């Protein structure tokens, strides 16, 4: 009984701390939800809430990985392209080559994970800026997706595969289950493991981390490999949901992921950030997208709105740093 009470107490304390640390963005999310519900009677319906949860899963998976990169004082611009390449490869293997679904899924995941590994290896071994390396990979992976598909969608009508993206566990969509698992996994990895401590240390001060004996290169390779894995899974899920491998899938997805991470309190200067904050940022971006669609706001204005949100989030981060220095 004492053990259970201690666990319950620790859980309550953790929740209180979580709400305290993220009070600002949680209030912002609540205000946004209230505003959208007042402007649209559809917003708080069960179907729309389910749609929002399903829609945010892709961005959440990418943003969880992006959190590691930005804490590491890096970035990954290739996640959307890796998503597209992995998804189209998996779809093509099933539809064109007759490869069994489990093997095709495995190949798609391995391909995206390999691209992430290549990003990390080049960054670690050459000291080239992550921005440049992942920008190059963004072009390479997107080009590979177009070459593989000849620029055309690959239609896949295989229930076993499509169920990955459209299936349910009870009343919960399977993509939401996957994202929940990734959230727990990445939160524990970042907050409770030696590797997670190394990510914070390298992002906070790379030279100090090197002098303390941390293998900087290994941390970077693991981080970008993890990002590639999360992007590849997202690509397979989204292509299964769309019944086709689309070479255009994930176009601009890196921007939504970066926006969610920055909104969640992760600093571009490195060394600061948590997966829990990123999750709230994901919901802010998801609610913004969904709400603007319900209000019939032109998609071009939505891009402007998200750009302003990123600018505001970075500015607030700068103000926080100035306040701490004072």
TrEMBL record:
Membrane topology term: Multi-pass membrane protein
Compartments (UniProt record): Cell membrane
Transmembrane regions: 21-42, 62-91, 103-124, 130-148, 168-190, 221-243, 255-288, 300-319
Principal location: membrane
Pfam families: BPD_transp_2
GO molecular function, one term: transmembrane transporter activity
Record's keyword terms, sorted: Cell membrane, Membrane, Transmembrane, Transmembrane helix
GO CC aspect terms: plasma membrane
PANTHER family from the UniProt entry: ABC TRANSPORTER PERMEASE PROTEIN YPHD-RELATED-RELATED, RIBOSE IMPORT PERMEASE PROTEIN RBSC
Protein name from the UniProt record: Ribose ABC transporter permease
Organism (species): Anaerosacchariphilus polymeriproducens
Phylogenetic placement of the source organism: Bacteria, Bacillati, Bacillota, Clostridia, Lachnospirales
Name of encoding gene: rbsC
């Amino acid at each position: 009984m004492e053990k259970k009470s201690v666990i319950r107490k620790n859980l309550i304390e953790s929740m209180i701390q979580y709400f305290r640390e993220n009070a600002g963005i949680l209030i912002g999310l609540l205000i946004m939800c209230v505003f959208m519900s007042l402007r649209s009677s559809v917003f708080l319906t069960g179907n729309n809430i389910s749609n929002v949860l399903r829609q945010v899963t892709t961005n959440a998976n990418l943003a969880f990985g992006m959190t590691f990169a930005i804490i590491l004082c890096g970035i990954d611009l290739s996640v959307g392209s890796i998503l597209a390449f992995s998804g189209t490869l998996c779809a093509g293997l099933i539809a064109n080559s007759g490869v069994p679904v489990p093997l095709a899924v495995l190949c798609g995941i391995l391909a995206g994970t390999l691209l992430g590994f290549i990003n990390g290896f080049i960054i670690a071994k050459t000291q080239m800026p992550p921005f440049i390396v992942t920008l190059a990979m963004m072009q390479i992976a997107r080009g590979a997706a177009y070459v593989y598909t000849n620029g055309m969608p690959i239609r896949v009508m295989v229930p076993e595969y499509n169920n990955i993206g459209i299936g349910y566990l009870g009343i919960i969509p399977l993509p939401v289950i996957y994202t929940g698992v990734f959230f727990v996994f990445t939160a524990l990895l970042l907050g409770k493991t030696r590797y997670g401590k190394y990510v914070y240390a390298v992002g906070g001060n790379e030279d100090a981390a090197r002098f303390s004996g941390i293998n900087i290169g290994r941390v970077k390779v693991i981080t970008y490999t993890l990002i590639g894995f999360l992007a590849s899974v997202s690509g397979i899920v989204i292509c299964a949901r769309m019944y086709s491998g689309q070479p255009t899938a994930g176009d601009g997805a890196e921007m939504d992921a970066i926006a969610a991470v920055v909104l969640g309190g992760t600093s571009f200067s490195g060394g600061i950030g948590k997966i829990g904050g990123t999750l709230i940022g994901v919901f802010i971006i998801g609610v913004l997208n969904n709400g603007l669609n319900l209000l019939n706001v032109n998609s071009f204005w939505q891009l402007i709105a998200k750009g302003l949100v990123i600018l505001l989030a970075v500015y607030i981060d700068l103000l926080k740093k100035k306040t701490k220095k004072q």
